[in-house]
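#struct-queue
[09:14] JT: dropping the first one here, sequence first, then the structure tokens:
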Amino acid sequence: MVLPLCPQCPLWWTPLITAPLVLKIGGELLDAPGWLEGVVAAIAAMAASGVPLVVVHGGGREIDAALRTAGIEKRQVEGLRITDERTLDVVVSVLAGTVNTRFVAALAAADVPAVGLTGVDGGCGLSEAAPPHRTVDGRSVDLGRVGVPSEQADMRLLTALLRDRFLPVVASIGVGGDGRLFNVNADAFAGHLAARLGARRLVIAGTTPGVLGEDGATVAVIDGGAIGRLVAGGTATAGMIAKLHSCERALAGGVEDVVIVDGRDRVALEAAGAGAVPSTATRLTGAGLTASARLRRSAEAARRRKTCATTAAE
């Protein structure tokens, strides 16, 4: 029996396809030719293995360059971009235009059947305005036109593409129910998609060898319950703070594990996609999550089972 598609149904509840892998590629890996070639080669190898794959990308460096050209000041807080209307226009044009198109073209040249999207397409990035950000030192900062992914985001387009063996490449632009666009943190977007699609693993690739400890060495494993302590203790700073919080939410949403890996190392990136944990990577697990996070994790699994049972009955 072939079950009909359901907007809430992760792929692994159907007999047609295995659990997907969600891969987030940092924008810094895409604007350097040597690194881009390695990323494309790694993704091509993952795709050839037959594992369904969704790629989410950022584009921070190119956005920064475009802002400088436009004479717009860059403003950030703990790795999150404060986004006014003018900044949003630049973010949309860079992510949806230059970065996404160039990335998809490079994948196509490697015979990967990639499809370029943003979170606007099919409502997969339905978002709500982000609340003011509470900093580690207790300040409240208005982020402007920044969005957070909604639980009502529609996964049907991504599911359909994966079932037809296409590889979605999604720029982290969100859309509200009223059609307003949002700048969505790419790590948060990737984590949300991983949870909603029932991903077996979320891989976050950047230009650092995982999470670094106080001694500068890569931390091999971090329990989800330790993330808050790392941030509060000052071990994690700047962009890593937002990254770790995104990992924590993905784990609470049911993702089995998250691997933060140095994407400049093609072999390490491929290994992370294949289920290993390279030496230049940190694995984050759901162990030690708070009781409320564990409850959310159980509720998410129960919701998926109930939705799929209803869909099958129909």
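[09:21] JT: and here's the second one, same format:
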Amino acid sequence: MALCSQQLPVRRTPATSPWPAAPASELATPAPAYADVPRARSEGTGSTWTGDAPVRACARACASSGHATPRPCTRHERRLGPSWTRPSTRTMAISPNESAACPYPPSVLDFVDFRGLAASTVDESWPCEVRTFWVHDLRPFVEAVRFIYAYFTLFVVALGMLLNFFALRVWSSRAMSGTSLSVYLRALSLSDMGALICTYFLGYWRSHHPGFNELFLNNESICRFHKVVVSMFPMTSQWLQTALTVERLLVVWRPLRARNPYYPQLAARAARRTVGVVYLTLILVALTKWHFSGFEQYSAFEYQRCEHNAHSSVVAVYVYVALSTYLPGTIIFVSNVMLFLRLRRSDSLRRSLFAGSAHDGACYGSDAAARTLLLFSLLYLLLQLPLGVVETAELYWDVTLYHPPTTDPVKRKAYIFWLNTKLQLKWARGLLFWLFQLSFVLNFVVYLKSGGRFRAVAKGLAWHWLTCGLSPLRTAGRSLSTLPHHLGGSAAASAAASAGRPPPTARRAATCRPRAPAARPPSSSPTSPWRRPRRRWRP
């Protein structure tokens, strides 16, 4: 088998131009030989490194010589001979020494753009140990994350939009709109829908439709505005949950204020002011992304980022992570713990006061409130807090513990370890960022657990939609006792009977175990004090 003997250089040419004919002087020039590799994933135009000249020159050399080199000529190259020219579709080339020592070319790193980089720079920045770690250890996990982003993102976005729109419609009904809770949760539903559209749907569309992404790349204002809304809506959802938790804590901590007959109107008015302040403050905070860049520049959707805004500030990113994760998380956790302890103490005092009476063992609303708080806390701890922790670790690792590429053997080992850990943190953040969107969908489950009124109105509204408006929807009541017949307890009782379960009242009685009233003594006298005299009808 004929082997290429000459060591050939690589030229830098535009990606759209074929490589010109190589002169005979280049065949004798001692320079590193290169083997063509597949093009790295990128979306751009301009000049690129190609491997066309070495391949064609190798074909010429194979047709005339038979010297041994590390790279053998292929059968196709020997058959084509000196007149063969490969189309210029390659972007990177590596040296034969590196190819012989490392079985994985730089092209296996499909997330890196190698255009305009020398082979020595690439070999120094992405050593063979890093490529081996990528292929054997990290790429299966990365492929799984990419599969989730590609095939499940649109489904989660569509489901979240449907559930949040339905929850917004329920909280806006006449039966639910008169409380401060409905004000907070209406704003939370709107914020969740904005996060699903601006953060996840647009990211998916930009990564899968390069023509749509060109609108952002060619327009600086649109690109900067997208960075602002990507940061604003998720942070707004977190702070609305924080404001709702603090509001519930104040209500339980000062219960006498709720005895005021005008308290619902006052609380709803205060909630509207709080929501307005939260939105205005977070819009101002998010506008800092108009100038500074953050994690949105390295999106897990892997679309080509905008290069209009290259300003970066480590302090600004740390402040953003603290405002979006640690500060609201700490307030929510501490408030929920205080609220849970307060409710437990109130229940114990109530049981001790009514011990031995007819109200001994009666049910109160603290169990439902504690369950709602527990769900909010678990949702935050499982889906939101891990993302903030990984973002902080990645920022600290990339900036504070940075190791530059080097050829020193000792420092090279430290650089390889740093780069491998950096890749792990990057894709772990990508997976947690996708899981973070589930919190905008699962909030509807928390709404269902918030109380029976929401479930009753949601059931009636869903039936009204499923029957295409043929079933009248009348939700003018302010409580379950004034709701229509198909939204009240009869529907729940019939559903329980069809499922073979006792009605809700029976289950509540069996759970709470109320004390039975004292038996009345039998009496046959018509004037007995235990029998109310029958009222006669008078014309």
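[09:30] RK: nice, looked through the second one.
[09:31] RK: Strands lie at 12-14, 35-36, 47-49, 93-94.
[09:31] JT: good to know. Confidence is low (pLDDT under 50) at residues 1-71, 74-100, 475-499, 505-515.
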